[in-house]
Design goal:
18 strands, eight-stranded mixed beta sheet, Chloramphenicol Acetyltransferase, seven-stranded mixed beta sheet, 461 residues, single chain, 9 helices, alpha+beta, disordered C terminus
Amino acid sequence: MAQSLVFKVKRCATEFVRPSKPTPHEIKLLSDIDDQEGLRYQTRLIQFYKYDPNMAGKDPVDIIRKALAKTLVFYYPFAGRLREGPSRKLMVDCNDEGILFIEADADVTLEQFGEDLHPPFPCIDELLYDVPGSSVVLNTPLLLIQVTRLKCGGFIFALRLNHTISDSSGLFKFLSALGEISRGMNEPSISPVWCRELLNARNPPRITCTHHEYEEVPRNKGTVIPLDDMVHHTFFFGPTEVAAIRSLLPVHPLQQHTDFEIISAFCWRCRTIALQLDTNEEVRFICVVDGRSKSVNLQLPKGYYGNALANSAMVTTAGKLIENPLAYALNLVKKAKANVTQEYMHSIADLMVIKGRPHFNVVKSYLVSDVTRGGFEKVDYGWGKPIYGGPARGADGDIPGLASFHIPFKNAKGEEGLVIPFYFPNQVMERFVKEMDSVLKSNTNKPTKCDKKSGIIVSSL
């Protein structure tokens, strides 16, 4: 990744894109899963597209802008504004005010970004401009999209979404519909479904499961990662790296572990060592589980595009996590995943109503989200599939170092795997890299320092 790359982006005036036909003006309530505090932030996505000679003379900005207006006829709540009612209940005012759209050009080619496209990206704040006043959660556009043409004929599609309206599966449905209409279809192949009442609290609400992720823990001084001298580092996990981690585990012929479980457990343990916590301090692993998965089986309609995510946590102490073999951490990760059932999801919705829609616990927590099956690398607006489609940053939210994304990736050798970006203070990162490399035996990546003022990534070499 060419992280020292610097380039100029020329943006046109921000405009609003509205549905191309009249749509219902109404108030639509979000679900009690949608409107929890932990989802009240903006999430970012980016896709990189090559020049396609078959599309010569066609402008991606114009095609996508027109397709957006048509897609919003079906997904008209996206063109509305979020309001907050009694008891902090969120709802969408479907008023057709539109989404924010930015047309831009950059004096750079796709090749200049390098072969290894993954977060952090150079000049990300230029490729996805934060329109002043637009990033607060309430009463602002729910979507901001910037399409940036490149010198080579390729382009970059970047998006910011108010997370309360959709999760990654819901956003993928919207972008798939946008892709289909960009390619000439009149309507999406999967019709969007609202039905947010399916994930509302029961009457009366009742908390029936243990939710370590929402336990109240005082956020005393020093309990959250300090924000001084922050650096990025991205690790690749392919077959060789996963095999190296598996070698640390006892062999049980009848016991199977997914790559997600193994990598998450390994990173959690290395992260805890690097943070140098007191041995008796509690630490949490929080797993993000999609309620649409077969193991949970919420039986939501195929076109449901709301949040169907559950955060599930397991708790231990830093001492136990570090002193025990990796299998100890792995067992906790597997339990966090297995905890999420239909009943667990309904219990979370009930908890939100009973306890005032709290944020999940962030104190000494490590949250992991698997986006390897998100599908963003498959969306075709007419120029084929992107060479990268996924998170625009290593992790979203306002708490650096808290969360990690597992992002699908193919390295320069053609090996299929995933990358995980991390963001820590420099000294913590040095210890973290040392712990990781002691097993992975990979010293090819070096941390990169972020210039907080400019937002441009500068090589530390």
